[in-house]
From TrEMBL:
It is an enzyme of class 2 (transferase). Its EC number is 2.7.8.-. PANTHER family: CARDIOLIPIN SYNTHASE, PHOSPHOLIPASE D. It is a multi-pass membrane protein. CDD domains: PLDc_CLS_unchar2_1 (cd09157). Pfam families: PLDc_2, PLDc_N. Could be a virulence factor. This is Cardiolipin synthase.
Length: 478
């Protein structure tokens, strides 16, 4: 403030010199910081170029949106907390052989999580199947309930979950709820108010009205995690809202796929939630009672993979890319939004060229019009190189599924777009199990309704082509 008052009392000539010196100092500061800390070359060039054109505005915007404070905070917190628990019996760890060995080895290397055997994974379609199982688990809780979700609406479904969480808290269970600061309402989150009023500890991820914390608005937790007593977990793409119960004929129905897990893999999912809770609240819940002795529930081999703009940067993306590079026969991807970067698209194209059957299933019309426009440009390259893109009929399907060679499956919260693969905090699970992969692959194939062709894209009007090309510039933020 003193500098501002000093500026007011300067002569016009002195004010011009002051602004000139200020601009020069700011652009030098931004340039040096970008060169040292921004990894992406295009982003670095963009920030430097914008700041040299508009030094003061560029400095302010870079300070708010260009500096990744999340990485620094995550590294500081993780360095003080040994996250990988030691309660998992070595007998549950598994080592893959065969042509997926490089994938298993690479993923273990950058996640530091082992593959675990002895698990059981059940598939639920839509809230009609998943919600009753999730509520039954919460209603049986005696030790803990951990819930993380992007959307927890204050509708009939959301209130039913909230009441179950409150009842679990009143029974003496440790209950913690984490919702996204935007997905569940930025200015007003009635479900959070309701839970807090009834004694449940809930926090809103990266949420703040303070201007200096505005950079975090663009960083969202998209994870869908539910863990009960450390013995049963749920993971997938399902939010908690009336729109996911198709049997009730909601106005805007959303179809989705969710998974119940049992076995040692629940420990890795618990760890993923507790890391996020510690990251946001600094409350240490890495307690032995939340990691009970594991039991063999089945014969499925699984691993949890987390990703976000922190110490887990792009790990889900790297997993998918490594799996694509190893595919021999088929790649099937089902995603509500298909907007990956050029490296990801190139790997899909290379797979198609070497004879792999690459099929991508996306909604005919999603719930995000801008995404539908932008994807039209992205779809041209894979179509040119022999990938098949199918448009699924309504209702809008929000499932995030990937199957390689009908042997390896990848499920969870991550879409195949730049936001999910780089900006969002996501959680996925890889599954090495032939029968499970075949069932999931068959489910994906049932949504091959309309085949998209290059002619469809080339015959768009000039206006639509211009609209789509312009919208594509917003890719990192859609």
């Amino acid at each position: 403030m003193s500098a501002f008052y000093t500026y007011l009392f300067l002569t016009d000539f002195e004010q011009d010199w002051f602004l000139a010196v200020l601009r020069f100092v700011l652009l030098i500061v931004v340039t040096i910081h970008v060169l040292r800390h921004v990894r992406d070359t295009r982003s670095a060039i963009g920030w430097i170029g914008f700041t040299w054109i508009m030094p003061i505005t560029g400095f302010i915007l870079y300070t708010m949106f260009g500096v990744n404070r999340v990485v620094r905070r995550a590294q500081k917190l993780v360095s003080t907390q040994p996250w990988h628990n030691h309660s998992i019996d070595n007998m549950t760890k598994y080592y893959i052989k065969g042509h997926f060995y490089p994938l298993a080895k690479v993923v273990e290397g950058f996640t530091q999580r082992p593959l675990l055997i002895g698990n059981k994974v059940d598939t639920f379609y839509n809230g009609d199947q998943a919600y009753p199982a999730m509520l039954a688990a919460i209603n049986s809780a005696q030790v803990c309930v951990f819930l993380s979700t992007y959307i927890l609406k204050s509708d009939e479904t959301g209130r039913e979950f909230a009441d179950a969480l409150i009842a679990a808290q009143q029974r003496g269970a440790t209950v913690r709820v984490l919702v996204d600061g935007i997905g569940s309402g930025y200015f007003y989150c009635p479900i959070a108010k309701y839970l807090k009023k009834n004694g449940v500890l809930i926090d809103r991820f990266m949420h703040s009205f303070w201007p200096w914390k505005m950079p975090f608005i663009n960083l969202r937790t998209h994870k869908k995690i539910l863990i009960v007593d450390g013995k049963v977990g749920f993971i997938g793409g399902l939010n908690i809202a009336n729109e996911n119960k198709l049997s009730t004929n909601p106005k805007h129905p959303v179809s989705d796929t969710h998974f119940q897990i049992k076995g040692a893999i629940v420990h890795e999912l618990t760890e993923a939630f507790l890391q996020d809770w510690f990251f946001i609240t600094t409350e240490d819940l890495n307690k032995k009672k939340f990691f009970p002795k594991t039991t063999v529930e089945g014969n499925m081999i699984c691993r949890i993979i987390t990703a976000g703009p922190d110490s887990d940067m792009e790990k889900i993306k790297y997993t998918m890319m490594q799996a694509i590079s190893l595919a021999r026969n088929s790649i099937r991807i089902m995603t509500p939004y298909f907007l990956p970067d050029d490296r990801f698209l190139s790997l899909l194209c290379l797979a198609a060229v070497r004879g792999v059957n690459v099929e991508i299933i996306i909604p005919q019309k999603s719930n995000q019009r801008l995404v539908d426009w932008a994807r039209n440009i992205n779809n041209i390259l894979p179509l040119q190189y022999g990938c098949n893109i199918w448009l699924a009929k309504p209702p809008f399907n929000h499932s995030k599924l990937m199957v390689i060679d009908r042997m390896w499956s990848f499920v969870g919260s991550s879409n195949v777009d730049m936001r999910s693969l780089r900006l969002n905090f996501e959680v996925n699970m890889e599954i090495y199990h032939k029968e499970f992969a075949e069932d999931l692959d068959d489910f994906i194939c049932t949504h091959r309704h309309t085949l998209l062709t290059l002619d469809d894209l080339h015959h768009r009007s000039v206006f639509k082509k211009f609209r789509d090309s312009t919208t594509r510039l917003l890719l990192p933020y859609l």
